[in-house]
Amino acid sequence: MKTIATIITALALAGHGLAVPAVEAAGELKARADSNVFVCDSPRFLDTGPCENLPVTTDVCRGVPANLDNKISSISPNSNIHCTLFDEPNCGGVASPDIAERVENLSDPRFNFNDKASSIKCFLK
Fold first, then answer.
1. Where is the signal peptide (predicted)?
2. Of 2, 50, 84, 89, which sits most exposed with the smallest number of CB within 10 A?
């Protein structure tokens, strides 16, 4: 009976664009939310090349669009999330350090991830 109530609650919340609990492997619930990450292929978000506001769902891996694959130089996650970049598709390979705020240049030694990202995964703060 508890499972049916959880499903009904999740469906009701999903219809309103609110965080939806997701069942984890161990049976614990974890909130998910839709958010955005602004990325550009140039440092300091300069308008010299493509920039995109990528829609993300927390705790779900997503690929980087083809026009930005291995080209992201600056990134700014929305204030409710923090993200990790990966150098391979499907959030595989080498992971970047956690990105919780605007990073104007991913070649900064704290990140060292300029022009390397092929996928991204974000989490609620």
1. 1-19
2. 2
Domain co-membership, 47 together with 102? yes
Residues 5 and 48 in one domain: no
Task: Give the integer Cα–Cα distance in Å for 77 and 5.
Answer: 33
| 81 shares a domain with 117 | yes
Residue type, 43: P
Total count of domains within the chain: 2
Strand partners for 84: 121
End-to-end CA distance of the chain: give it in Å, rounded: 31
State the Cα angle at 68 between 81 and 38, rounded to 5°. Answer: 30
CA distances to 15, 43, 76, 93, 110 from 106, rounded to whole Å, are 36, 8, 11, 17, 8
Tens of pLDDT, residue by residue over 60-108, are 999 999 999 999 999 999 999 999 999 999 999 999 999 999 999 999 9
Question: Which residue in this structure is represented by tokens 């609990």?
Answer: 21
**Structural domain boundaries, residue 43:** 33-124
